[in-house]
Amino acid sequence: MGELAANGAASIGYRNAGTMEFLFDQDGSFYFMEMNTRIQVEHPVTEEVTGIDLVKEQILVAAGEPMSLTQDDVEAGTATRSSAASTPRTSSTTSGPAPARSRTGTSPAVPGCASTATCTRATRSRRYYDSMIGKLIAHGKDRAEALRRMEIALEEMIVEGIKTTIPFHRLALASEKFRRVT
């Protein structure tokens, strides 16, 4: 799939960091959905898996410099780490536009977890903008460790005054069907 994505970008002369998204069905077939020519909200997962600073690469290109690597340099790490397809990740967001002001927010300090919460003090969530107030990504030596770290981080995460998807993510993590996904 990665090779097909790289060949697709090359076929249109694309020379930058980007994301191609695919849908998978139950038999393992995959289908092209879209290409994004910007940094995606999930980019920390890709950075964890590959060890590549995607934001740095985008800045180099914007400054007229060549990227510091080629597609052939991109490899997934040798350790089992989080990935968008198989390891839990969560965003503390409202369920949809729900203007409100948070009273407080804290990011968990859990090994193997990265948080980009922007809600550490009173923050206003406006209905005309993306309601995401942060991301929480966990990784570990295997899926079980990543799941446990995410559970702990979600228990420690505090956001008051606005609705978040934290309860949904706790339910997902408790689901045996979700835990069996590979």
> Which stretches are low in confidence, meaning pLDDT under 50 for 5 or more residues running?
78-95
CATH topology of the largest domain: D-amino Acid Aminotransferase, Chain A, domain 1
Q: What is the subunit arrangement here?
A: single chain
| Tally of individual helices | 6
**H/E series, N to C?**
HEEHHEEEEEEHEHH
Provide the gyration radius in Å: 18 Å
Shape: globular
Helical/strand content category: alpha+beta
Within CATH, the superfamily of the largest domain carries the name: ATP-grasp fold, B domain
Mean pLDDT comes to 75
Supply the CATH architecture of the largest domain: 2-Layer Sandwich
Largest sheet: 3 strands, antiparallel
Total domain count: 2
The helicity comes to 25-40%
Strand order of the largest sheet: 3-8-6
Please report the first level of CATH classification, the CATH class of the largest domain.
Alpha Beta
Number of strands: 9
What's the N-to-C terminus distance? Answer: 17 Å
Beta fraction: 15-25%
Give a structural overview:
Strands 3-8-6 form a three-stranded antiparallel beta sheet. The radius of gyration is 18 Å and the shape is globular. The chain contains six helices and nine strands; from the N terminus they run αββααββββββαβαα. Helix 4 packs antiparallel against helix 5. 30% of the residues lie in helices and 21% in strands. It has two domains: 2-73, no CATH class; 89-180, 2-Layer Sandwich (D-amino Acid Aminotransferase, Chain A, domain 1). A hairpin with a 5-residue loop joins strand 1 and strand 2 (30-36). The protein has helices at residues 2-11, 43-50, 54-62, 143-156, 166-174, 176-180; strands spanning 19-24, 30-36, 89-93, 100-101, 104-106, 113-115, 124-125, 132-138, 158-160. It is α+β, with helices and mostly antiparallel strands and 182 residues long.
